[in-house]
Amino acid sequence: MAIDRQSQSFQQDELRPLPPQAHLQPMRGWKLWVTIFALFLGLLLSTLETTIVSTALITIASDLGGYDKSNWIIVAYLLTYTGFLIVYSRCSDIFGRKSSFITALAIFTAFSIACGVSRTMEQLIIFRAFQGIGGAGIYSMVMAVMAEVTPVESIGPVTGLMSTIFALSSILGPVLGGAITTNASWRWVFYLNIPGGGLALAIVIWFFPRNDGRLPINRLSFNRIDWPGILLSLIGSVFLLLALEEGGSAFSWDGSLIVVSFIVTGAAWIAFIAWEIYVAMVYSRRTSSFASKMMPVFPVWLIRRRIVCASLIAAFLAGFPFMVLIVYLPERFEIQDGLSPVASGIRMLPLLLLSALGAGAGGVINSRKNISFYTLMVGLSLQLIGLGCMTTLPTTGTIIDAQYGYQVLLGLGFGTTLTSLVVISRLEVDAPDLAITMGAVTQVRVLGGTIGISIGQVLITHFVDRDLSDVLSTDEMAALKASVSSSRNFPASKQNAVSEVYGRAFNAQIKVVLYITAACWVLGLGTFKKNPVNFRDAGRIEPCGSGDQEQDQG
């Protein structure tokens, strides 16, 4: 691989940990396809949970109360989902892929049941957080195992298929969520995971290959986990989202809780970066320090690679527009246009179907010849055009046919962008770093999406408080924040005012993610490489410890 391995300022060999313990060997025949089926089933379930709730939020809030807290149903899942992606990748390096996958499936299925039996909004939010821990493990193991068990000649098509499964979950999520809440109890949104999770768990237990190199589960093995790094990253994420979700609504932006939350966020992330650099250095040197026994939770040596670093930042920014539209577009249809949850999900099909098509096409194209830089830039350009067009949508509750064309552009852009980032990252690292890098790419993308959802809610709260406080009475404002569907009981003039304000808030959300996507486009230029590695050559790349001094041709 064309990578400079002798950085004068920061020796990569000083930071590289010993090879992971738990790599799997490529598989062929029926065992490969049974394994792939279990992986894709788990992938579908875990990613479905990020979108299926989007069209059920208003119904859930009407039943349990607390519409102003309803975003936490999604944010709580994504928060732990984000925080534990790399954790699972690293734990699987220590304890093995199979045991880690079984644990993740069991946690996910158990807390899906718990979500379904929740009686209060607070219970549901807490159980969703634990469900996200299991979902993170499933996604992380799928990314790691697929890269290891798939023969080199099949990696390209399988990557495209995996991206298609991810996009398929985006398609099914809003439609299923709307159909379930319209025709049955919203609780079946979570009960739906029980048969699928049970089947995937059985397949993994009976057919999944075991890791010969895994470590025994004991105190020494647990000492290898980077607990301080995990804790610092979770603190940084939790306090950031807490400030964004509660600022301007439950607490003022200059209130002590919000200010302290931002301070803690900054301090935690600075401490996390410093700690990870320290742990990586002492780990490779095998000193007597207690930290020398830990495997760093974040691969800091990878940020010395221009292309990987650029793809990580681009993935973070790419998460914003995708999740904002997945969550708030169906809400726009329901609140502003007065559609049912299932009708809202159906009207998102152009966006979702073309996301799947773009993801699959991107994988197939790059499997033949790696042009992932160009497919990435095309995808981001399509997003910019689509988002620019979306900002022109009327705020009067009028559905115009042109918006479906805008969704087509956005869908193709999302699909090709996400697949391209996976391909770029996959081909720029060696086997020892593969699982942790795939986890990092997904983690930063989901973190970006989670922050995007929080910013979207901040904008809605701002517009509602600013523009409706003089229109609605105190009781009506309280009812609106408890359940947005309560506006249907308002006089016609006030219903129109609510619809208009929410329409302006939604357009403001689109403008924000438009600017973020423009920044992502600029950063995407940093992934250019004159002679990129193709999938067919990936298996012949020398490992980083080989000592070859290949120069970066980017």
TrEMBL record:
Chief site of localization: membrane
Protein's organism: Aspergillus eucalypticola (strain CBS 122712 / IBT 29274)
Cellular localization per UniProt: Membrane
UniProt keyword terms in alphabetical order: Membrane, Transmembrane, Transmembrane helix
Membrane topology: Multi-pass membrane protein
GO cellular component, one term: plasma membrane
Pfam families, alphabetized: MFS_1
Transmembrane annotation, as ranges: 32-60, 72-89, 101-119, 125-146, 158-176, 188-207, 227-244, 256-284, 305-328, 348-366, 373-393, 405-424, 444-464, 508-528
InterPro entries per the UniProt record, alphabetical: MFS, MFS_dom, MFS_trans_sf
GO MF, one example: transmembrane transporter activity
Lineage: Eukaryota, Fungi, Dikarya, Ascomycota, Pezizomycotina
Major facilitator superfamily (MFS) profile domain ranges (all copies): 35-536
Name used for this protein in its record: MFS multidrug transporter
